[in-house]
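S1.2 Input.
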Amino acid sequence: MRMQKFKNLILGTFIVALTLHGFGQATTNSPYSKYGIGVLRSESFNQNFALGGAGLGFRSNSSLNLLNPASYSEISITTVEFGVTNNALWLSDGTQSQFQNNAYIDHIAFGFPVINNKWGMSFGMLPYSNVGYDYQNTDRVSLVEGDTIDLNYYYKGDGGLNKVYFGNALKFRIDSTSNVSFGVNASLIFGSINADKKVVYGNLPSSYNTWQITKSSVADFNFDAGIQYQKTFINAKDEKYNLTIGATYTLGRELKSKDSDLIRTFAGNIEFGTAKDTILNVDEQAGIIELPSQIGAGIAFEKQNKWTVLVDYKTTAWDKVQNSEPNLYQYKMSHSINGGFEFIPKYDAFNNYFKRIKYRIGARYKTSYLTINDKNINEYGITFGLSLPMKRTDSAIPGLNFGLEYGKRGTTDAGLVEEKFVNFNFGITINDRWFIKRKYD
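S1.3 Output.
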């Protein structure tokens, strides 16, 4: 028993070390990450990823659900979750296409019961947004004399924001068949967003070109809260059903940032140009990165140890956020709907492995917070997944989770880019009694 605990501790330590190294590698190759704070990452963990990202009404005693902090009150055993995602991305502007591929650590999270069946706690780390783009375009400008000038624009950016959260939830018994839970997360949002823009006069080699480098760094707190009401029904066959209704609210906040802005002119080509004059040099000036408020509601209905159906709706008030570049893009209210279905043929069929597999399917649709060239940048995704149970002797790892998502973002209209993506998610859930005193060891 002691050896098994030691092995589990070593595995958990390895995952933490890998995660701390790997979060710096998280990236994207989406041109839409140029706008705002980048491409927003889903907060769906292993199980919810394959359920279309739904989970505001989801509760589990052995897995973690960041989508609604009220769910922590259901945790009955120390739980560690770790996930990695591979993003395959096809970009097209209608005339040419490009393929990009990135793998990154999706999350690491811990949860444990403080008072079993009453008070649960969770903390973890995950990407909040990612920035990663490198592209160029050309505008031909006519002069009064009839000549034309080619303006070549080169855009490059990287970075993004991460999130470290700490949450607690309490459960209160209403009667023998119903209860209500309340939860809250305090989160540290931190990271930096880097942008590099060059404007080069293509057919005027004697002209001075422009080079702008900006950086915004942030480290500040935000908060979200959730509630879940659960009602249990038992039919004449002694089959148990649970109905859970959940709601969440995320606070809108102005996060303090340090902003740097350097603008120079240079002569020569883009790779080996010679710096000339410095037009602007601002170093770590106080600024803000504004995050919007969000409201969500969801429902989950399950036949215990058989199937679960989930549906969520969320709306995010991006239209209330100030836009620093309204001539390039606009913010608007964002809406999303997520749904999923999980099925296990026979959870206690220990002589038939395939009947103990959890099969998952889901879908999501989201109206993005961006409008570019009067076009809405919407996206959708279809998900599939499996949870493969481990042998009974490996009880510390109850299952390996696999999820696959196919989706699309954007459009080729109005000179924009359409993105088609396939996300593959792999997750490990570890359950053990690391912080629970045993009667026997």
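S1.4 Remarks. The chain has one domain: 2-432.
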